[in-house]
Amino acid sequence: MREFVVRARSAPVEPGRFLRSVGNGPHVEYLAQIMVSALLVSKGHRADTRVSLVMEGSRDYSRMVTIDGGPLGSLPGWHESALLGVLAEALTAARGLAKASRVEPMSGISVSTLSFEAAVRDSTAPVYLLDRKGTDIRAVELPEDARFVLTDHIPMPKKTISYLHRLGASSISLGPTVLHAAQCITLIHNELDRQGV
Fold first, then answer.
1. What is residue 145's predicted lDDT score, i.e. its pLDDT?
2. What is the pLDDT of residues 48-89, one digit of tens each?
3. Which helix (H) or strand (E) is 33 found in, with range?
4. By CB count within 10 A, which of 30, 53, 157, 164 is most buried?
């Protein structure tokens, strides 16, 4: 299973505020781009891929929206507005969710009250942290099951990076240019496809 965990530090978890932030403030529209890059291929979607968006703009608990390509059915569309609507619907279903709880509002989509650190800590798969100073991805033999950790436009705090390394995360690089998360996911998929994993 290919897994992408994206830390969305400024993404609000209140559905109305989430939708109002499209095009301003937190710019949540990039989450739709991440979903497309992670899950879509020509004439279908990747059943071997899961993407988790950890939204931290909350007064109580972070919400991790996970979209699993295996059981994922059809969505109302793969354009930005439809995908953001799906995320808002998932966040609506998770209103008032207690700590360490989970709800599955639709097939292949779940929402958990889980922090970014807990989401990564609970991984049994090897964890790879994107870092332009890391080992070039082309020099790494990637396993079939891997978890790739990314962040939104807000850089990952140094203490979080240290924490991830203490957990055993390996730093990998996609090149010298810092890219958007959605672009990184496309390049990671390409490398995994080329390696045949």
1. 95
2. 999 999 999 998 999 999 999 999 988 888 899 999 999 999
3. helix 29-39
4. 53
* Cα distance between residue 176 and residue 166, in whole Å: 25
| CA distance readout (Å), 181 to 36, 38, 47, 178 | 11, 10, 20, 9
Residue 179's φ and ψ, nearest 5 degrees, are -110, 170
What would the two tokens of residue 123 be? 């991984």
156 close to 148: Cβ distance less than 8 angstroms: no
What whole-number distance in Å separates Cα of residue 16 and Cα of residue 125? Answer: 35
38 CB-near residues (< 8 Å, 6+ apart): 4, 46, 49, 51, 67, 182, 185, 189
Three-class DSSP category at 148: strand
**Residue tagged 């090897």 (tokens):** 126
User: Contact, 129 vs 120, CB < 8 A?
Assistant: no
**Would you tell me how many other CB atoms lie within 10 Å of the CB of residue 113?**
21
**Rounded mean pLDDT of 115-130?**
92
Single-letter code of the amino acid located at 51: V
Which one-letter DSSP state was computed for residue 58? Answer: -
Which are the contacts of 173, defined by CB distance < 8 A and separation ≥ 6?
A: 130, 131, 132, 133, 134, 135, 136, 137
Q: How many C-beta atoms surround the C-beta of residue 15 within 10 A? A: 18
